[in-house]
Amino acid sequence: MEINFKANLINTSTIKKQVKNTNKYIDTKASFIELDLSSRKDMRTLKRAKSRWNAPFLNSIFSHAKQKLPNWKLYALTTQEDNYDKLKTDEILGFAQTSKYAPSMINLEYLQVKPEYTHKNKQAIFKHIGSSIIDCLKNLESVSRINVTSVLEEVDFYIKNGFTFDIDILNESNLFWSRNQKK
Asked: Could you give the angle at the alpha carbon of 73 between the alpha carbons of 67 and 79, nearest 5°?
């Protein structure tokens, strides 16, 4: 009996897509999936993204994914709506790699949006990719807290997405989000 492993749909999310030949954006659906690191197809998709994107964190994401570390997970946001056993690299918008810190806490180890869709590109066809990934992580049933150590230039992004500074750690780029946090 053959067992097929593949990426798994976790949730759907709403992102913004540019209306062709305009400066207007409309809501569109994206799929939040968990990649199966034991799947050669999923690993091949990640490797293709690493080689095609000029993205600073994808080398680290790929390196950790190859190690198949316990309690580490890899998620992707994609415009693909089905056939997750055949992921299309060109439809992947971003990746998030997490590690389990405690029973209901995760560390967001890496968040990588496809460079052409980052907030720095004002002409991006898609917008709100990173925020959408963060929202999907917040909505995981088993998660009540997300810790992140951000690169300094992205601290504002995390604050806009509901993270606050972790005063227990004396570092200006350590932030967290908690389900029980007061707004």
From this structure: 120
Position 69 in a domain: yes
Per DSSP, the chain holds a count of helices (H) and strands (E) of: 4, 9
pLDDT in tens, 102-140: 889 999 999 999 999 987 887 899 999 999 999 999 999
- Inside any domain, residue 174: no
Q: Is 21 exposed, middle or buried (0-12, 13-18, 19+ CB in 10 A)?
A: exposed
Helix residue ranges, H only, 68-128: none
> How many structural domains comprise the chain?
1
Instruction: Look at residue 157 and tell me if it is in a domain.
Output: no
- What is the value of pTM for the model shown? 0.90
Residue type, 90: D
